[in-house]
Structures are given as structure tokens and as C-alpha cells.
Amino acid sequence: MTSRSVPEYRVTLPKELVADLARRATGLPEWRLGNDGELSPETAARYHGVLAGLPRLAEFTTTCHQMLGALDGEGFAVFELAALLDAADSEEAGLRAVTALLSLIATPLRAFDHWPLWQPLGTNLAIDPMHIDVVNSTLPSDYIAQLCVRPDPRGQGHSLVSQVRRAVNRLGYADAELLTHPQYVDGSFFELTGVGEEWQPFPILDGLPPSEGFVRFTAKMLADADPADPYVKAARALERELIVGQRRFLLERGDLLITNQHLCCHGREALGGGQEDVPEDERRLLLQIFLRGQARHTATPEAMA
């Protein structure tokens, strides 16, 4: 029998870590948030206290930082957590365990005031084109994480991730220079916390090093743009390079996709047809959470003027 080839971006938690974490999950408190939308230091400390001493926990955090933070790496990873969700006493306990694990990597953040910490991403038949989240802010979240609760029963809705810094490096000088101009606009900005100030119009390239700055790209802003506009042409050139370098894969139940927004854009292909025949409680469901890292340096509209 041929063994399954596991992509290098997929990581399975050690069985001993899963077993002990599931047992301790019931001792994890409800999360509380500070005024900045971030997980409160008190909650984070309690999470870390409960997780302290778990076998191979240091190996997990080291793997996360290596896969997500290496500037010459892919900037994303998929952690297979189905066994952890199955072993937890309840869905709530399982989600707390995942949140506690993520708090070892970065600080969970509720960016949208009227959404829960874990934002449901339900059925949407349209594609979700390449983008970073909260693109029109001075301080987008450093990471986003998406937990697959239910995959598309029609077998579609492939996730897309592309290393955006490599895509930028493949551009010609003229296109790259145009992307440094604040000529791009996307969506509205209201009832947001912890992501800085609104930036409209914004540049795609902010001039900061990858560990601090962002490539503020979203294909949505190009939908009705003038194709003859040189700034639009430059953004389309970047989009083409993102497509050339994109990874395409399906998330299975319990898969946790973590993406470093300093290094990657992400998106999703269309879901399978016939969604109207799928009961609502069987349709694809992801839960998304934002994460704030340590570095908070970013460009400002004033500096780019």
C-alpha cells in the first residue's frame, strides 16, 4: 500500500501532547479581552499556567515560529487538530484548548467589535480572492488563523495561500515603484479595535522590512477598477505573480491554517455546486481568529505623504 505523501506545511500534534492537553482543557478559563481587543494578560497567564509542563509543548511552539516566521519560508502552516477536538470533553473545551495553544505563538485579538473572538465564516458561494485581512488599516493583524469545523460536503472551496514577498520580488521595477504610492482604496473602516487607524488611500508596499510592514493587497479593490490605470496595471501584475506562486489545498475537519500576514496573502476558491440542497448545519464552516505578534511598528499615512 502506498503511503500518503504529507505536504511539508502540514503538522500533526504528538499523541502525548494531544492526550494531556485534552485532559487539561476543562481547566482552561473563559477568555477575557482587554480594551484593546486583545486577550487579557490575566487570561493568557492562566492559559500558560495550565499548559506548563505539557510534553513536547516547546517543540510545538518552536515549529510554529520556524514555519511562520522564516523570511525565506512559506509563512503559513496547517496544524491537524482533529484528534484534539475529538478528545476534548466538549466543543467549547476544544476551542479553548486551540486558543490556549495559539496564545503561545501570539496574542489572540478580536478586531471587529461586533464579532466574537472566533468569527464564523459560513457558506459563501463566491470566491474569496487573494488578500490580507483589514488591508485598509495602519496596523493589520500579524497573523490570521482559520479552524475548519466542517469542510465543504461538495469537496470544493480550496484554500489558497501565496508568499507575497516573493511575488513582489518577481515584479519589474516600474510596477514595484507604482505600488509604493497611496493610490488604493478598499471597503469601509468602522467598529474596529487593535488594528491602528484607517488608511485610505493606502500604498500596497509600505517600505518597511517584512518583519514589520505589510504588502497591503486585496484583489477585491480591483474588481471595478479602470484596467487602463497604471496603478491598477501594477496591482494586476502583482496578482498574476501571486497566482503563479500560490499553494492550493483543502482544509479537513480540525485543520488549523495559520498565515503570517507580513509574508502571505490568502483566499479561497468557490464552494461546490448544489449548496442549497445541503442542510445549514452540514455546510462548510470555518472559525477565524486574528493574532497580534510582538512587533507593532508600521508605516503611517503621514510618513508616506
3D architecture notes:
With 305 residues, this protein is an alpha+beta fold. The chain is built from nine helices and eleven strands. The longest helix is centred in the last third of the chain and has 15 residues, at 230-244. The chain starts with 9 loop residues before the first strand and ends with a helix.
List its salient traits.
four-stranded antiparallel beta sheet; 17% strand; 9 helices; seven-stranded mixed beta sheet; 28% helix; 305 residues
What layout of secondary structure does this protein have?
Layout: E1 10-12, H1 15-24, H2 41-51, H3 57-69, E2 76-80, H4 82-87, H5 91-103, E3 107-109, E4 119-121, E5 128-131, E6 143-150, E7 159-163, H6 164-169, H7 173-178, H8 230-244, E8 247-249, E9 255-260, E10 264-268, E11 285-292, H9 301-304
Offer a concise description of the structure.
This protein is an alpha+beta fold and 305 residues long. The chain has helices at 15-24, 41-51, 57-69, 82-87, 91-103, 164-169, 173-178, 230-244, 301-304; strands at 10-12, 76-80, 107-109, 119-121, 128-131, 143-150, 159-163, 247-249, 255-260, 264-268, 285-292.
Measured by DSSP, the beta-strand proportion falls in 15-25%
The count of helical stretches stands at: 9
Radius of gyration: 19 Å
| Helical amount | 25-40%
Mean pLDDT: 92
Shape: globular
The ordered H/E elements are: EHHHEHHEEEEEHHHEEEEH
Strand element count = 11
Q: Ranges with pLDDT <50 over ≥5 residues?
A: none
* End-to-end separation: 62 Å
Main sheet summary: 7 strands, mixed
- The secondary structure category is alpha+beta
